[in-house]
Amino acid sequence: MDEFASIRLWTERRQSAVWQAGRGVALGIGDDAALLDPALPAEGIEGPRHIVAAVDTMVETVHFTRRTMTDEDIGYKALAANVSDIAAMGGVPLHALVSVSVPKSYGPERVRRLYDGLYACAERYGVAVVGGDTTSSPEHLVVAVPLLGAVEAGGALRRSGARPGDAVVLTGPVGMSAAGLHWLLAQPAAGEGAIDAAAAGEAAALVQAHRRPSPSVRAGRLLRARGSCRALNDVSDGLASEAWELAEASGLRIVLRERDLPLAGSMAAYARRIGASPLDWMLYGGEDYVLLGTVAAEDAEPLRDLFRQEGLPFFIIGETAAGEPGVDLVTGGEGWSGTASARVIPLRKRGYNHFA
């Protein structure tokens, strides 16, 4: 099967021209480049807007193996990681390009399954897939998904706006993806993404969090519209690392309270069984793709009520303070770690680093 036949196999009849036109696509897959109409409205955005651009790349053996991800999961997560970056700016994801470098060991059917997962994510978040590139790879699969979105002009949420006295908030639990990866790597090798059904019951939520994350687009839009969100970041490299990014960009200290970090029951149960610390996964695991940010302190509780009304998670986990940029964790006391007395522990700038 030649390149063009392969592309047709992977992309034809996935998204109708009418549906894509409603997302501002004047010309999609099939020519040298796509044509996008910036005048068409993006969901919920009226008037002037800024284009939001992001790209994440997934590399076999670095981000996934056949032991940890199915082909469908790889495609889904490759797009989801980019959707999360758009969400962190308070934006709406719109148009994706897909670049795939495929080793001969995969073959067109495996790549078709990858596209099945990618289009499943695109359907969930209203993303039009408008083109891309396909090349061969000498050994490993590489997937890169540049993504364009939109946000109200002047309304993007950045890392640099936090002020001393803000509340620090999260839009979902953290650590579950890392715990899911730990569980997957601890299982006997069973082929491409296969999991023994009986064994998977205890860790289904953790595995789902690792393989099929849920970017917080709706949460990002609510925070942007509210006007009290000062800074925002998505949790891709671990809570501690992302908090450091906010602290350095805004020039202040971030103080996290251990007792207020959302501890998922499934993760706590798995950690107890294997004698691990869930706090390590929460602080340093990454790939949770929830949002970490700061909001005006007086609006933190009303925001939690608003999110509850919308059926969305929202946790107030700390505050900001003037001082040298850094991140502290208040542990013990009423926390769930079992430590009797409260302590303030400076957190190292540690998380996933490709070049460490």
What is the CATH topology descriptor of the largest domain? Phosphoribosyl-aminoimidazole Synthetase, Chain A, domain 2
Low-confidence stretches: none
**Helical residues, percent:** 25-40%
| CATH class membership of the largest domain | Alpha Beta
Order of helices and strands: HHEEEHEHEEEHHHHEHEHHEHEEE
Computed Rg: 21 Å
CATH H level, superfamily name of the largest domain: PurM-like C-terminal domain
- Overall strand count: 13
Instruction: Average the pLDDT over all residues and give the rounded result.
Output: 89
CATH A-level architecture of the largest domain: Alpha-Beta Complex
The coarse silhouette is globular
Residue fraction in strands: 15-25%
What's the total helix number?
12
Keywords: ATP-binding, Kinase, Magnesium, Metal-binding, Nucleotide-binding, Thiamine biosynthesis, Transferase
Catalytic activity: thiamine phosphate + ATP = thiamine diphosphate + ADP
EC number: 2.7.4.16
Pfam family, one: AIRS_C
Structure description:
This protein has 356 residues and is of the alpha+beta class. It has two domains: 150 residues, 2-Layer Sandwich (60s Ribosomal Protein L30, Chain: A), CATH 3.30.1330; 188 residues, Phosphoribosyl-aminoimidazole Synthetase, Chain A, domain 2. Helices cover 35% and strands 24% of the residues. It is built from twelve helices and 13 strands. The longest helix has 19 residues. The relative contact order is 0.15.
Key terms:
356 residues; alpha+beta; 60s Ribosomal Protein L30, Chain: A; Phosphoribosyl-aminoimidazole Synthetase, Chain A, domain 2; 2 domains; 7-stranded mixed β-sheet; 12 helices; 13 strands
